[in-house]
Amino acid sequence: MVETLNNFYKGKKVLITGHTGFKGAWLAIWLQKMGAKVIGYALDPPYNNGIFQLSGIQNLITDYRADIRDLNKLIEVFNDEQPEIVFHLAAQALVLESYANPINNFEVNIMGTANVLEAIRKTPSVISGIMVTTDKCYENKEWVWSYRENEPMGGHDPYSASKGAAELVISSYRASFFSKKGSPGIASARAGNVIGGGDWSEYRLVPDIMRSIKDGKNISIRNPMATRPWQYVLEPLCGYLKLGMALTESPETYAEAWNFGPYMQDVYPVKDLVNCIIDIAKQGQWDDHSDQDKLHEANLLMLDISKAIHKLKWKPTLSFNQGLELTVDWYLNAEKHNVLDFSINQIDYFQSKWK
Q: Rounded to two decimals, what is the model's pTM?
């Protein structure tokens, strides 16, 4: 699969929205490594010590800083660059931030998605678009079985609601403008809780843990029993890359929604993830700061990944522990080395585990 993906993306013009973010930066590094001509479109990164800045990937790609809510600018960049494949990752990605600023959340996640689809519609060079949303787009009833791609969209908090709405926008554009033969293949990708090195976002569990460890402080955990589909960052990115290739080759088959998550045995509560990180790092301890009056966040969410496994031939590569080991290793050791080389070595290790 390594050779197949490399051969497909080598020389392709690939535009990533949100390339300055955590997942977007890892995707840019991976695509640049494969020989793609990468174009990034995003706001400035929200912190200065993440993988995007430390890796220097911005010096190896075409780097645009602009807002996806600016449709005219977005179309201008698409017209100038003429991308063939689009990965849309730009988003307001935090549940707590969506409570603090719901209007911004809805503007970015709903209208931003519509703008990217409109730019694709007006750019003949685009042959496939992968629109990344989230596992939280589902109407979460917190039941004990996993959500399939045909489950209803929903969302209690503004973030989840905005992503459910974005999925409806994607479906509408696909049916209205991309259903004819020769149209770009448009798919949505729904990933679980992604972990990996180089993310320093506020209100996100692993960055909060690693900040506390680095500062020698106790780790404050607000929801230790919440269960999430944790997955190492390269897992869903591999799914996105395979989906981009499949869409290009057969859009009528793959232009639909896809779940990318871990196997059921790798779905764990927050407290287990924290304890595992402490064991790997050999430092840290945590305190339970549960608050009965806190803003609503889902306690249980799992994804059914059967379709991706059987139809796309994608499957998780690493175990829960292996993903956490790579994550902790990046946070503790990447800055002691060349960060770009260190990150590429993790990509090489991940690919070496493919069967």
A: 0.95
pLDDT tens sequence across 150-206: 998 988 899 999 999 999 999 999 999 999 999 999 999 999 789 999 999 888 899
Residue 283 lies in a domain: no
Q: How many domains does the chain have?
A: 1
Domain of residue 263: give its range: 2-195+229-268+301-319
Distance (Å, whole) CA 227 – CA 292:
17
196-218 pLDDT, tens digit per residue, is 999 998 888 999 999 999 999 99
CATH number for the domain that contains residue 74? 3.40.50.720
Over residues 266-275, the pLDDT tens digits come to 888 999 999 9
Q: Say if 214 falls within a structural domain.
A: no
CA pair distance 117, 312, nearest whole angstrom: 23
In a domain, 62, yes or no: yes
Query: CA-CA distances (angstroms) from residue 342 to 194, 197, 259, 334, 339?
Result: 19, 10, 29, 6, 5
333 in any annotated domain: no
Strand 286-288 with 219-221, pairing: parallel
- Long-range pairs of 267-270 with CB within 8 A, sequence gap ≥ 24: 267/227, 267/228, 267/229, 267/230, 267/302, 268/227, 268/228, 268/230, 268/320, 269/224, 269/225, 269/226, 269/227, 269/228, 270/205, 270/221, 270/223, 270/224, 270/225, 270/226, 270/227, 270/228
Centre a 10 Å sphere on the Cβ of residue 324 and count the other Cβ atoms it contains: 23
